[in-house]
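Here comes my example:
=====
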Amino acid sequence: MSLTSLLKKSKKGSAEIVAFAILLIFIVVAAGPKIKDLGDTVVNGVSSTNTQVQQTLGTH
C-alpha cells in the first residue's frame, strides 16, 4: 500500500467522522426541546396516575 492511497483513505475516514459528529449535533439541537417536553409529559402523567391510585386506595 502506497503512502498516497493510505492518506486518501485516512481523509475519507476523518470526513465520515466529522459528518457523523455534525449529524449528532444537529439531532441534539433539533430534537432536544421535543425530548424534554416528552419527558415533562411523562412525569405529569405518572404523577396524575399516582394521585388517582392513592385516592382509589384511600391512602392519600
